[in-house]
Design a protein that fits this description.
Elements: E1 2-4, E2 11-13, E3 17-24, H1 28-39, E4 49-56, E5 59-66, H2 69-92
Antiparallel strand pairs: 1-2, 3-5, 4-5
Helix pairs in contact: 1-2
Length: 99
């Protein structure tokens, strides 16, 4: 729903869009590394986007919400690109737990 404020006449979008993704990894350590890598890149404050991430076992759970569908699409694309980069880096450096 879109409403206008009386004082400014600005239109405010009350609808929130969201997307949640569960990404499996070979281990909890790999999922944690990916989460920390993506978490270093915060969403801009004025973007209307919020991002939450949590590791559950060997799965990274990512939830993104935005007040504009376009911003949700951009944010999810960015998150998935960053996760792909972290996976490529872990594969390149053979990120294995110490024995």
């Amino acid at each position: 729903a879109v409403v206008s404020t009386q004082s400014t006449g600005k239109r405010i979008n009350l609808r929130m869009y969201s997307c949640s993704v569960a990404i499996p990894f070979p281990s909890e350590r790999h999922a944690t590394i990916a989460m920390r890598s993506v978490g270093a890149d915060k969403e801009p404050r004025k973007s209307g986007v919020t991002r939450d991430m949590v590791v559950c076992g060997d799965t990274l759970l990512v939830s993104v919400s935005a007040d504009e569908l376009r911003m949700l699409r951009v944010s999810i694309g960015s998150v998935l690109d960053l996760i792909r980069l972290s996976v490529d880096t872990m594969e390149l450096f053979d990120c294995k737990p110490p024995s």
